[in-house]
Amino acid sequence: MTDQEETRPQARLPRGFRDIPAGDVRARGAMLATIREVYERHGFSALETPAIEYLDALGKYLPDVDRPMGGVFGFQDEDGDWLALRYDLTAPLARMVAMAGDRLTKPYRRYQVGPVYRNEKPGPGRFCEFFQFDADTVGTPVMAADAELTMMVSATFEALGIPRGDYVVRVNNRKVLSGVLEAIGLGEDGDAAQRGTVLRAIDKLDRLGADGVRLLLGKGRRDESGDFTQGAHLGEAQIGTVLAFVAAGAGTNAETLQKLRDLVGGSAVGAEGVAELEEIAALVDAAGFAEDRILIDPSVVRGLAYYTGPVFEGALTFPVQNERGETVQFGAVAGGGRYDDLVKRFTGQEVPATGISIGVDRLLTALVSRGLVRTDSEDGPVLVLVLDRGEIARAQAMTAELRAAGIRAEMYLGTSGMRAQLKYADRRTAPIAVIEGTDEREKGEITLKDLKLGAELAKSIESHDKWKEHPSQVTVPRGDLVASVRQMLAAQAARQEG
């Protein structure tokens, strides 16, 4: 073995990461454009923050409260400071707001889209790098800000083609849950790790069901892979109270709110949470968002520890097949809530804030499954063939002419002959091939080959005579390049619509 072979790297991906093909990137871009339009229509403006932050700006508020650095990709810089890839887009926003101070106009309303990184065990549909699309309002305590976000998520789903009845935005309040925890002896001065375990257990209700949550509230649960998750070690009476809370959802928001009032009993913080939910319910109802779109649901908790008030979750309710072949609801694709203490960590002063985050990759999967977007439907560029390397400048000129006219175009850059170039065009899903051989060049003409029509004819026409009745290529004057390509593309679009 040579030294070169010994040092050759292995081509592999880190666990939990993936390459994303062009079709998926294109579909994601179209989806993001729609979400961006909805967010901007609601008055939010764009912001970008770096992917790397100081660890102390992130770690304390990860779900793994017993492991301050658990869940992040952390590393030390040359000065010995600990850095980490951002876990979400909210903590970087809080850091930015703290740095900006009074220079920032409040309420500050921003949206941001980008990748986030979680050093957690990957699984089906779960990756260590994924995209989120957030919107946040910072600097106001009023419940109208929270209500607006729930309505904006609803508007986003419908703008993407998801009809009413196929989604619901569920709303709860962490203060109500705090009241319930007080009732079972786990108040704010109790064991923070145990409280965090309870929150994460309830947050898994949709995925694990009541029996799975019961195990996590008790001694713990072992999953199918054999991994064991430690539970909250609550007693049976405590577990019963918590499960009664998450099951309090009823047919109407008014009925659910009444049940929650009864559950929180004499807890002041619990009563405050119910009052906030009542205000949100009244606001969304006044705006025409009925319970089939926005629903009070006590089972919504959200796992992150920094939420201080209302929490919400946008879920898709249509049926899909899971990896076991079982029919289940698609589930949550968005989540958020109020986090009034997050900026306070940096400044010592409370800055009320609320936000929502859409899981971009998960939402895209849902849209594809419903046929609302496709990852394989877009045509490639018009391909200009190069049959004579000595005349490549002419091919380049035609390519530039098409691009200047707004037509997506590519000049063949390989060294193969015409047959191989046409095969390349097929693999690129090019709609048209532009051909200029010696004969065409001498006559001042070009040949346009309708590759989409040719493919359609190949499937439906068997006889050579029938094929000649439907020619898939035409010869036109060189000066008519742009007009003729446009005409052929329009004919293709008309056939597709027909």
Automatic annotation (TrEMBL):
One of its GO terms (cellular component) is cytoplasm. PROSITE patterns: AA_TRNA_LIGASE_II (PS50862). It comes from the Bacteria. GO terms for molecular function: ATP binding; histidine-tRNA ligase activity. Its EC number is 6.1.1.21. SUPFAM superfamilies: Class II aaRS ABD-related, Class II aaRS and biotin synthetases. The keyword Cytoplasm applies. GO terms for biological process: histidyl-tRNA aminoacylation. Keywords: Aminoacyl-tRNA synthetase, ATP-binding, Cytoplasm, Ligase, Nucleotide-binding, Protein biosynthesis. It is found in: Cytoplasm. InterPro entries: aa-tRNA-synth_II, aa-tRNA-synth_II/BPL/LPL, Anticodon-bd, Anticodon-bd_dom_sf, His-tRNA-ligase, HisRS-like_core, HisRS/HisZ, HisRS_anticodon. It is an enzyme of class 6 (ligase). The keyword Ligase applies. L-histidine binds at D88, L89, T90, R118, Q132, D136, R302, Y306, Y307. Coiled coil: none annotated. Residues 31-381 form the Aminoacyl-transfer RNA synthetases class-II family profile domain. It catalyses: tRNA(His) + L-histidine + ATP = L-histidyl-tRNA(His) + AMP + diphosphate + H(+). NCBIfam families: hisS (TIGR00442). Belongs to the class-II aminoacyl-tRNA synthetase family. Homodimer. This is Histidine--tRNA ligase. It comes from Futiania mangrovi.
